[in-house]
Amino acid sequence: MRAFLDVTGAVWWRSSHNFLTNPQFLVPSIMFPLFFFVAFAGGLSSVGDVPGFDFPSGYTAFQFCFVLLQASAFGGVFTGFGIAADFESGFARRLMLGASRRSAILAGYVLTALTRAAVVLSVVTLVAVLSGMQVDGGPLDVFGMFALAAIVSVAATLFAAGVALRARTIQAGPAMQMPVFLVLFLAPVYVPLDLLSGWVQAVARVNPVTPLLEAARGLVSGGRADLALADPIAVGLVALFALWALRGLRRAEAAGG
Amino acid sequence: MSPASGTLGAQVAQLARRSVLRTLRQPAQVVPTILFPLFLLAVNSAGLEAATRLPGFPSDAYLDFAMAFAFMQGAIFSMINAGTDLARDVESGFLSRLALTPMRRAALLVGQLAGAMAVSLLAGMVYLLVGLIAGVTVVTGVGGVVVLFVLALLIGLAFASMGAFVGLRFGSAEAVQGFFPLFFVLLFLSSASLPRELIEQDWFRTVATWNPVSYLVEGIRSLFVIGWDAQALALGFGIAAVFAAGAIASAASALRTRVVRA
User: What is the ipTM of this complex?
Assistant: First the structure.
């Protein structure tokens, strides 16, 4: 166990240090969610006046939940980019030779993604609160919302890690990014599910991100959050992608790192 | 015939052929240019259809309203394509070798931009075709479609020239890619998603009003949803022309500097 924690800690420290000390990684990670928040919550706020749009905490809080999950998911994807880059540079190969339990490497990257998410979400939340976002949920609701974001971050990291461990090249970036982008934007991003129209509504109804997004919105508004649906989906996604990532790790081992 | 020989027209034709073929042979340049705007068009038109119920919204269908957004995204992709190609020419040494020949700089620039413009034209045709199949109406009719493509190509030329400037100035494909978010931000901070009159937040409406991209979007959009709006078209064409002229001059200057360095 000690060896596992040592490897996990070393990978986490190195990757987090890289993230926090390189403006080229840190700045876009913070600026993109902020930009989406500003563009959606600021530019589209009158969409909250559409007849049938019933969200008591206002459009800023409505969009904040989407940006929260999006930033968490993309933090995971960018961590996947880091894994692929480590393979390209040869670092991952040396790491795998040195680690007694290689799943500890994966755990280290997951911790890195959570660190990234904590940094980015702190800034986004601060900006949202300063811009007057209305939070009607209690402390427990808010905690639940951030816990949901953390689970999304873990699921996205494991998905991206699975791709990165199989491809072992940064050229696989679009294969990590595009599915996450698609699944996020095929959820009720701008309006509640009932106000969506056409095929997007049909897709959003079966999109696993929809219950997560609706749960986050329910929590921030202190309203009804269907956690009975969101929690199993979140845990299921983590379990599924953990399997995917671990199998990817075996593939990387078989390929000699 | 060597590209370096012959008249200016022959030189342009040779380099344009190379640029067009090179662009069309790279699915990584063509596919995102076409698919990404179509995806956002589909998602936004379904997601924001409810916005048409806002009093004062200029169209009954958000799809018609959102078509301009797709054309603008296509223009931004043309910037990336043109800039990336030129940056690769710098990185690979092609430009240095070309500098040793009697090739004229104007031919190089015009020829290189041709590939990006070809993709712009192709992408615009696909956007319109898919839009028409999905039920888009162009209220200005066939004449409007012609004007639409002239304006879209002028905007595409402006953005592609800006990409060429960045590619030549920095000589790095990575630097060109780094400019993509900047222009994407400009697009999102414009009136691309809602008419300026319906933007509730004062600061956002002010930014959108000062943002020249708003007028490019509104020029294109007017052809789909408003009709022959002389003011919107004059602003759209005027800003696109000024932007194109400035970008071409900047790219030509960067090329001059780059060729001297080479």
Answer: 0.76
